[in-house]
Amino acid sequence: FKYKDTNVRKRLPLSIRVLLESAIRKCDGFYVKQEDVDNILNWEERQNEAEIPFFPARVLLQDFTGIPAMVDLAAMRDAVAKNGIDPNLINPKCPTDLIVDHSLQIDFSKWQDTAVRNQEMELIRNKERLQFFKWCSKAFKNVTVVPPDIGSVHQVNLEYLSQVVQEIGGFVYPDTVVGTDSHTTMINGLGILGWGVGGIESEAVMLGQPVSLTLPHVVGCRLVGSISTLATSIDIVLGITKHLRQASVGGKFVEFFGPGVSQLSAADRTTIANMCPEYNATVSFFPVDDTTLKHFKQTNFTEEKFEVMERYLKAVKLFRSSDDQTEDPQYSEVIEINLASIVPCVSGPKRPQDRVPVPCMKEDFLNCLNEKVGFKGFHIPKEKQCITVPFLHEGTEYFLSHGSVVIAAVISCTNNCNPSVMLTAGLLAKKAVEAGLTVKPYIRTSLAPGSGMVTHYLNASGVLPYLSQLGFEVIGYGCATCVGNTAPLPESVVDAIKQGDLVACGVLSGNRHFEGRLCDCVRANYLASPPLVVAYAITGTVGIDFEKEPIGFNPEGKEVYLKDVWPSKEEVQDVEEHTVVASVFRELRSRMQVKVLNCFHNLDAPDALLFPWDPKSTYIRCPPFFSKLSKEMPTPVSIDNAHALLFLGDKVTTDHISPAGSIARVSAAARYLQSKRLTPREFNSYGARRGNDAVMTRGTFASIKLQNRFIGKTGPKTLHIPSGQTLDVFEAAERYQRDGVPLIILAGKEYGSGNSRDWAAKGPYLLGVRAVIAESFEKMHKNHLVGMGIAPLQFLPGQNADSLELCGKERFSISIPEEFTPQQELTVMVRCFLMFNSCAFL
């Protein structure tokens, strides 16, 4: 490729240069054409217009979203074998890593050998799934499986899988990745371009297809100013998140530059990049600079690997010098954030974007009690706001009130890549214990580090025993509380909460905290830094002003304030320098490799080309998606006389559509599992059973927080319109399918927002849903619907179900032509009684 303008590449944002390199290297005239390369080179004129293909260097799967992808590949092998085709042709072409981390379920806390006990339960509960994973590692080429208890998917990606520069087949090129977790963007903090995709898209990439994306709008985020001495990386993260949310960066690339970037460590950057989905950007990219190189010198890179990486990045202009402003690229737009303006905050009580300055926490919570039910309100009557409910726990009387903390979790992925915040939490725990402070025993405390490295440096620094004394035992490695896998609260606590209709609280250092996700009876949940999680656990309530009120009393009855036990930045840095060193990475990597071998060595797995499906299995089932596999391309079919299965409002998340947490005992999925002779304790979670379509179909729209306008209250129920009966969503859909009635869903704005989940599209498809008519869609979920053959139809601007006077009980007919294009207008015929109305949709 030769171009007259030799400076064109220098003007491109560095993230766009990575896309350009991939396009040039993969240009074959079929998947990637000369036109695609030209479009990227002319990014300034073609952004937001041209569609380009992108071949990532690797695919990253975690088990919750990865297992359905691998189950689909296994089912695909069966389907091609039945059609007389060699099943060995079904193999990932793109290197794929599957990390088993979301299997972690907390069964024990505050016990000696807690992690060992939880691991034993995990192996018992997930044996079928782990055997399937081992079969995958043997049967499929290009698949590597990392077993549980090694680390969360993001930590493993950061510490072991990240290469920055790949050296394969005589080529040296940038390391890039797509993953089936929306927080794959964490890797952007190390200068590696990557983002989350759905399971459907990941399967396509695994099989050699490129990711198709619109050439993105790139927002340059210029960081200036000095960071406050009291602000942790979480405060920086939440501060930047708020600014970027206000800047409307949804669907765009964000690239950081400016003098403030050099103040952020590699761990800070990965923490910031991890929150990318919370402000809806596609990526949050920190180009490789001297800080990044310094980080990799401390990890597992050999001198030879390090030299190749540095020389290559500088040669192809993918290395950034933060001191030289003449190197600043041209961006679509630039926003500036002053780091000095960021103060310590928490986020909640229901959404990560609702930030609350810590000094205002008490006042804000009281305001939430008064406000009407919504994102910032619970509408508790004035006369009931001071209620106190006594209860017994292990023979001792305690009291709960509004704001009482019942869950306190320092969990993986968001913070644990950053030693400073974890060490701050550990040093705070040490000082608190030495001051005679304790945590009430009924509070569900847990510590789920992102990887063994965290445990290693917490132990090496001498703070782990103090965390344990406060109840923060290491329960294992992987996603736990954040995805609803917390241990059940004591029954006496649950009864007290229900008796007083209390707004009980959870505090966690994660990235997700939708209402009801941690526990059904915990209505207020706050994201906080690890040291603040420890602090709120000690106080036992969020209704405290740390500046004016003590967090507890020492044995002599003297008041102890947060400032008395909060470690200084100098203390934290001193400990960090003496514990988080290169030897930690090298030693831990060696130990983990041995552990992987031992773990897999003890598991039996089938040795066959085709997976031997067990009809008795409740975890792994052959899905029906390929049962009608044909060599002919199917044509679109119009929808006639459909009923609305659900009539939904705004902001229906993938959590509402396909929950990941525990399976309620009165749900359709529970009845199915009970028919298989399983007890409620053996149900596990929806996330763990994503390899079973029977469970996942029954779990579709099973969220207890689903707001269905047909019903008028929250819950996984709907109206079966022909009979007028209120049924579980699955039972209603089953009746419609028996009667041959197609289904649609009516919804409001931002349908499908939240975590990427392929079952949020697969589930509705298996329920018989043919179209979703909404005011707007989350882009990734819209792509998933298309991938499953569900039509995402958007109301015309200014229109919605209410403006068109739809009640949802009409019959809907949608004429879909054999050939159509995106954003084409279609006509939906709505029949109500004997009247017909014509409504246009986009």
From TrEMBL:
GO MF: 4 iron, 4 sulfur cluster binding; aconitate hydratase activity; iron-responsive element binding; metal ion binding
Family matches, as SUPFAM superfamilies: Aconitase iron-sulfur domain, LeuD/IlvD-like
GO CC aspect terms: cytoplasm
Aconitase A/isopropylmalate dehydratase small subunit swivel domain segment(s): 670-796
Pfam families xrefs: Aconitase, Aconitase_C
UniProt xrefs under PROSITE patterns: ACONITASE_1, ACONITASE_2
Key words, A-Z: 4Fe-4S, Cytoplasm, Iron, Iron-sulfur, Lyase, Metal-binding
Superkingdom assignment: Eukaryota
InterPro entries: AcnA_IRP_Swivel, Acnase/IPM_dHydase_lsu_aba_1/3, Acoase/IPM_deHydtase_lsu_aba, Aconitase/3IPM_dehydase_swvl, Aconitase/IRP2, Aconitase_4Fe-4S_BS, Aconitase_4Fe-4S_dom, AconitaseA/IPMdHydase_ssu_swvl
Enzyme Commission code: 4.2.1.3
Cofactor needs: [4Fe-4S] cluster
Catalytic function, reaction form: citrate = D-threo-isocitrate
Statement: the UniProt record of this protein carries the keyword 4Fe-4S: yes
Domain Aconitase/3-isopropylmalate dehydratase large subunit alpha/beta/alpha: 43-540
UniProt key word Phosphoprotein: no
Enzyme category, top tier: lyase
NCBIfam families associated with the record: aconitase_1 (TIGR01341), PRK09277.1 (NF006757), PRK12881.1 (NF009520)
Family assignment from sequence similarity: Belongs to the aconitase/IPM isomerase family.
Protein name: aconitate hydratase
